[in-house]
Design a protein that fits this description.
124 residues; mainly alpha; 434 Repressor (Amino-terminal Domain); 2 domains; 73% helix; rod-shaped
């Protein structure tokens, strides 16, 4: 891996971690005490972060420093944004299924009640 490739990987990881935390560049820059322009340069592979800034980044993201330099294989780059888009749809489907289950359950209860009344009338 070349230095340029490593810088691109580092930059991509910083942006991915920031997006996963739902932070703007301004919010993250404030947390690690750097300018927004400098953070933008880091995320766009124009500048390296200093070792101190790398430690600050790892602390705010809750990861080890080496994780900022390794390939991420767990989620695609835009997974945070993708998941947030579908969260509302997923909730709607869950509520719809719960409503359908409640309907079926109520129909069964009503049916059991009618069957019990019919049996009671037949016995009298």
């Amino acid at each position: 891996m070349t230095e340029r490739e490593l810088l691109r990987l580092f930059s991509k990881n910083i942006k991915n971690y920031r997006v996963r935390h739902n932070w703007s560049q301004a919010e993250l820059a404030e947390l690690i005490n750097v300018s927004v322009n400098f953070l933008s340069d880091i995320e766009n592979s124009r500048k390296w972060a200093s070792p101190i800034t790398m430690v600050k980044l790892s602390n705010v993201f809750g990861v080890n420093v080496y994780e900022l330099l390794k390939p991420a294989n767990d989620l695609p780059d835009d997974s945070g944004a993708l998941l947030s888009v579908y969260t509302g749809d997923i909730q709607k489907v869950i509520f719809q299924v719960i409503g359908e289950v409640q309907s079926v359950y109520m129909e069964k209860l009503v049916g059991l009640g009618r069957a019990a009344e019919t049996k009671k009338v037949e016995n009298n």
